[in-house]
Write a structure and sequence with these properties.
With 76 residues, the protein is an alpha+beta fold. Helices cover 28% and strands 16% of the residues.
Amino acid sequence: MNNKPENLVFQIEGKDRKYEKLEDLEKELKGEINENKKIVIHWEWEYEKNTLQDIQDTKDGENIKQYNFTIYASGR
């Protein structure tokens, strides 16, 4: 992970909760899967919501070219 924009949130398709931290999303996704399963993660970067957030979004946009993180999945 590197320099996540402040207003970037993640959501598991079909669930109502939005996650501001990847660590919180990770807790939701950990576990065992006993069949083929597709999990879709949506992301949203709401910008220009208000003046304060617009300033932060501009700052975040200037400081990041890419936002990278790694997802690990293992099978048996």
